[in-house]
Amino acid sequence: MKITKEIKIALVAIVGILVLFFGLNFLKGMSLFSSDNIYYVSFKDISGLSSSNPIYADGYKVGVVKSIQYDYKHGKEILVQIDVDNNLRIPKGSSAEIESDLMGNVKLNLLLANNPRERVNPGETIVGEKNGGMLGQVSKLVPTIEKMLPKLDSILASVNGLLADPALANSLHHIEGITDNLHTTSQQLNVLMGGLNKDIPNLLHKADGVLTNTNKLTSNLAQVDVANTMAQVDQTIAHLKDFTRQLNSREGTLGMLLHDPTLYNNMNKTMRNADSLLINVREHPKRYVHFSVFGKKDK
């Protein structure tokens, strides 16, 4: 049987179509000859999910999105067909979520439930939901940011008013002057510290001399006979007590002088007589002083 050119061209075209088909599926990440399990996930919003997007479970890639079917008649939900590794057992109660990052990459995460007894059979439908990821969190912050914008405008206006206030410029000028003064003071302190560094050795030498004298004084004090000195002090105090006792008693000359009222009265009487005598001498001096050129005596 002779193969014509037309048959050869047809065979090459068929082989090319098959290679193209399997090559595209391979590039999309779909398994070519594996027996993956097929599941369905229902969404209300797929947020840019498309065929060949990866599917992850606990951060590990377990499959790809096979196809997406939209309900054009009712428009209630979108059914996504996924191919998952047949070694993965999806527990009952598991769900799926669509997550997109800041670069716009979209992936499907399987949220596996903790149910080791029951599992989702291939061909059954899993409930899906949307997870905005970082963009969703940012979008949640947008209302708060919108509320903050008027306050930020007010704060910026206050800051601009503060910066335009001449008092701020004057304050900065004063601060510059204070800085110059501090610089001058620092230089003076450096000079003072330099002088102190020169004087410190002399001061230490004098301090050593003072300590030496203190040690000598301490040694001299240690050599003093404290017991004998205290005995002499006690003896002196005893003599003072005896002297005080004699003064307080009526015996002896000092005691009699201190306690005899007759002496006090006689002394007062003597003082009064002396006072009268002085007055009489001042009034009649000729009675007491006799002076005459011719020797005549005055009466």
From TrEMBL:
UniProt cross-references to InterPro entries, sorted A to Z: Mce/MlaD, MlaD_Phospholipid_Transporter
Keywords assigned: Membrane, Transmembrane, Transmembrane helix
Entries under Pfam families matching the protein: MlaD
Domain of life: Bacteria
Residues passing through the membrane, by range: 7-27
Residue ranges of domain Mce/MlaD in the record: 38-101
Name used for this protein in its record: Mce/MlaD domain-containing protein
